[in-house]
Automatic annotation (TrEMBL):
<dbReference type="InterPro" id="IPR016036">
    <property type="entry name" value="Malonyl_transacylase_ACP-bd"/>
</dbReference>
<dbReference type="GO" id="GO:0006633">
    <property type="term" value="P:fatty acid biosynthetic process"/>
</dbReference>
<keyword id="KW-0808">Transferase</keyword>
<dbReference type="InterPro" id="IPR001227">
    <property type="entry name" value="Ac_transferase_dom_sf"/>
</dbReference>
<dbReference type="InterPro" id="IPR016035">
    <property type="entry name" value="Acyl_Trfase/lysoPLipase"/>
</dbReference>
<dbReference type="InterPro" id="IPR024925">
    <property type="entry name" value="Malonyl_CoA-ACP_transAc"/>
</dbReference>
<dbReference type="Pfam" id="PF00698">
    <property type="entry name" value="Acyl_transf_1"/>
</dbReference>
<dbReference type="InterPro" id="IPR004410">
    <property type="entry name" value="Malonyl_CoA-ACP_transAc_FabD"/>
</dbReference>
<feature type="active site">
    <location>
        <position position="198"/>
    </location>
</feature>
<dbReference type="InterPro" id="IPR014043">
    <property type="entry name" value="Acyl_transferase_dom"/>
</dbReference>
<feature type="active site">
    <location>
        <position position="89"/>
    </location>
</feature>
<protein>
    <recommendedName>
        <fullName>Malonyl CoA-acyl carrier protein transacylase</fullName>
        <ecNumber>2.3.1.39</ecNumber>
    </recommendedName>
</protein>
<dbReference type="GO" id="GO:0004314">
    <property type="term" value="F:[acyl-carrier-protein] S-malonyltransferase activity"/>
</dbReference>
<dbReference type="InterPro" id="IPR050858">
    <property type="entry name" value="Mal-CoA-ACP_Trans/PKS_FabD"/>
</dbReference>
<comment type="similarity">
    <text>Belongs to the fabD family.</text>
</comment>
<dbReference type="GO" id="GO:0005829">
    <property type="term" value="C:cytosol"/>
</dbReference>
<keyword id="KW-0012">Acyltransferase</keyword>
Length: 312
C-alpha cells in the first residue's frame, strides 16, 4: 500500500468545516489556535459561525489551509502518514507544509496575502470561470484560442477526463461557451468565483506573490510533492518559488498530477480537508485505486478502519 495525501482547494469551504473534529480533539484545537495567533483573528469564528468572510478569497484560503492541516495533524496522531503529497491550487500549500518546505505559520500568512493578491488582480465582475463537461482537451483548447480574439480565455483546471474549467474575461468566456456548445459539450456550468484564476489575467497577483516569496525561507523537501504546474515531482527547494509564482497564472494539471502519483505506485489516495471534490475527480481518472477522504469524525473513522483492513 502506497498512500498519497491530496489537499482541498478553494471552493471546498463550508460553514462548520472542521468543527466536530475541533470539539473532540486537542491536536485540532492546537492548529486552529496556531492559525488564530498567526493571523491575529479568530479562525474558529471564521470557519464555524455564519459570516460573509468565509467565501471571500482572502479569508477562504487561510481557512481551508487551517482545516486541512488540523485534519492532517489528527491523521498523524492516528499513525496515518503519506509517501507522496499534492493539493489542488491552494491545496498545494498544505502539501508543502506537510513536506516540511514551509512552516505552518508562514504558510497561513502567505495564503491570506495570496488570496488578497488574487482578488485584487482583476476588477470584480470582469472575469468568469466555467466547468466544461464532455469534451476533450484539444477541442476545449481550440475553442479558447478562437475566442481569444475578444479577450483572454484559456483552460484553468484540467480536473479529470471530461471536465476542464475555462477562465478569462467574461465576454471571452461567453464566446468560448457558445463555441463549445456547438462542438457538443454535455454541460457548461458557470462557477461562483471571485476571479479568473489560473490565467494570464492573474499576472499582477503572481508578481506580488513573487515579491512575498523572496522574503521566505524554504526548507528541503522531506516528501515528494507533485507540482500543479508541471505534474512532476518537485525535487529541489529552489524550484518552489518559481513554481508557486507560475501556479497562480498557469492551468492546474490535476488529472496529470494524479496519473504521476499512480505511476509512482500510489494505490491509496486520502483527500485531506473539506469536501470531496478531489475524490470525485480521482474516481474518474482511475477506478482501480482506493479513495478515502477525511473531513469529520465519520470519515475519519471510516478511513482508519479501511486502512486497518487493507494492512492485515
Amino acid at each position: 500500500m502506497k498512500i498519497a495525501f491530496v489537499y482541498s482547494g478553494q471552493g471546498a469551504q463550508y460553514q462548520g468545516m472542521g468543527q466536530e473534529l475541533y470539539e473532540n480533539n486537542q491536536v485540532v484545537r492546537d492548529v486552529f489556535q496556531h492559525a488564530s495567533d498567526a493571523l491575529k483573528m479568530d479562525m474558529t469564528s471564521l470557519c464555524f459561525d455564519e459570516n460573509e468572510q468565509l467565501n471571500q478569497t482572502t479569508y477562504t484560503q487561510p481557512a481551508i489551509l487551517t482545516v486541512s492541516m488540523a485534519i492532517d495533524a489528527l491523521l498523524k496522531e492516528h499513525g496515518v502518514v503519506p509517501e507522496v503529497v499534492a493539493g489542488l491550487s491552494l491545496g498545494e500549500y498544505s502539501a508543502l507544509v506537510k513536506a516540511g518546505v514551509l512552516d505552518f505559520t508562514t504558510a497561513v500568512q502567505l495564503v491570506k496575502k495570496r488570496g488578497q493578491f488574487m482578488t485584487e488582480a482583476v476588477p470584480a465582475g470582469d472575469g468568469a470561470m466555467s466547468a466544461v463537461m464532455g469534451l476533450d482537451r484539444n477541442t476545449i483548447e481550440e475553442a479558447c484560442i478562437a475566442a481569444s480574439d475578444i479577450g483572454v480565455v484559456s483552460p484553468a483546471n484540467y480536473n479529470m477526463p471530461g471536465q476542464i474549467v475555462i477562465a478569462g474575461l467574461k465576454e471571452a468566456v461567453a464566446k468560448a461557451t457558445l463555441l463549445l456548445e456547438e462542438k457538443g459539450a454535455k454541460r457548461i456550468i458557470p462557477l461562483q468565483v471571485s476571479g479568473p484564476f489560473h490565467t494570464a489575467l492573474l499576472k499582477p497577483a503572481a508578481m506580488e506573490l513573487a515579491n512575498e516569496l523572496e522574503a521566505i525561507e524554504f526548507h528541503e523537501l522531506n516528501l515528494p510533492v507533485i507540482s500543479n504546474t508541471t505534474a512532476k515531482i518537485i525535487t529541489d527547494k529552489a524550484d518552489v518559488k518559481p513554481l508557486l509564482t507560475r501556479q497562480v497564472m498557469s492551468p492546474v494539471l490535476w488529472e496529470d498530477s494524479v496519473n504521476t502519483m499512480i505511476d509512482m505506485g500510489v494505490d491509496t489516495f486520502i483527500e485531506v480537508g473539506p469536501g470531496k471534490a478531489l475524490s470525485s475527480f480521482i474516481k474518474k481518472i482511475n477506478r482501480n485505486v482506493t479513495i478515502l477522504n477525511v473531513e469529520n469524525q465519520k470519515t475519519l473513522d471510516k478511513t482508519i478502519e479501511t486502512l486497518k483492513g487493507m494492512s492485515t
